[in-house]
Amino acid sequence: MTAVPVVVLIGPMGVGKSTVGQLLAERLGVGYRDTDADIEAAEDRTIAEIFVDDGEPAFRALEKDAVRTALAGHDGVLALGGGAILDPDTRALLAGHRVVYLSMDVEEAVRRTGLGVARPLLAVNPRKQWRELMEARRHLYEEVATAVVPTDGRTPEEVAQAALDALELKEA
Hints:
The chain is an alpha/beta fold. It is built from eight helices and five strands. The chain has a five-stranded parallel beta sheet, with helices on both faces.
């Protein structure tokens, strides 16, 4: 029997997938894994460096492999990079998993990330680029999500609780 994540978190950069994911893992008594961290460890460089050195298509290929590996071998909480859902094969792999889309509006994104720091896709005119990214991605997040949990104005603890409630999961 292969391991299956208890919860998969998706959503835009800066929404809090890592923070909420670690809280959920703690509350559920399971491990936490982040595919971006897996890629950085395997490549021994940051996501931003991969984008600059090799380009987005090379990064997306690494991301697709990392997500496939993690979905097949992790039985805790799994956080995916913001663009992982762009790949149709990845979206197909998410079918049947408990997927929580953590959502936020652009003003919340600005407040949380400062939009641009170490975010290669948001280097120029971050607000406009963030809006365009979300216009391209929102329907894909919603397509694969079991539950949508808005994060605007909520603490990470409140978001984690809302995710547990939405999935009807009990704390360990």
